Amino acid sequence: MLRLSKLADYATVVLVRLGERGTLATAAALAQETGVPEPTVAKLLKGLAAGGLVVSFRGARGGYRLVDELKDISVARVITVVDGPIRVTACCDGRECVHGETCGLSGQWDMVNQAVRQALESISLADMANPALKFDPSSAASAGATMRVAEGQGGCHAGCVGNS
Which PROSITE patterns match (predicted)? Predict the structure, then answer.
């Protein structure tokens, strides 16, 4: 099963909230607004700053803000900054594994890895922040991840840590 790490999920929640605010925010404020524990938010913000997604400002009126707008940040970029390169198996992207000669699939997972990466690159944090957008599974097989405007307002996904 492919599963997003808890830190990548939290980073997405924190970044969306930071983008919605449009102003500087402290780790404490973001923790309060998202329900993510403050030590986790502080750790994430440091890593997100190192990864070029946020910029920090020191001082009494300091805090963090996004470097780019939500529409310009893909889910793939967030995952890569938090968890490293997106790979569905150890032998993706031309990497070899100890079973390469016997499994017969060496390099074949690359097409799956590429499809997953393309799907995640096609979804922005602005898409994630828009409750009117829903995944359209009927066209996903041929067109990658496809979003559509939902007829009714939906609730939060099961992994969400807070609504603001």
Answer: HTH_RRF2_1, HTH_RRF2_2
Residue 4: what pLDDT? Answer: 87
pLDDT score at 86: 87
Task: Give the pLDDT confidence score for residue 139 in this predicted structure.
Answer: 58
Dihedral angle sign, alpha carbons of residues 78, 83, 87, 93:
positive
Nearest partner of 161 among 40, 22, 48, 55, judged by Cα: 40
**CA dist., res. 149 & res. 51, Å (int):** 31
Q: Residue 62: in which H helix or E strand, if any? A: none
Residue 18 has pLDDT above 80, yes or no: yes
**pTM of the full predicted structure?**
0.78
Contact 110, 89 (CB under 8 A): no
Residue 49: is its pLDDT beyond 50? yes
Provide the residue count of the chain: 164
- 114-120: long-range contacts, CB 8 A cutoff, minimum separation 24: 115/144, 116/2, 116/86, 116/88, 117/76, 117/86, 118/144, 119/144, 119/145, 120/74, 120/75, 120/76, 120/79, 120/86, 120/145
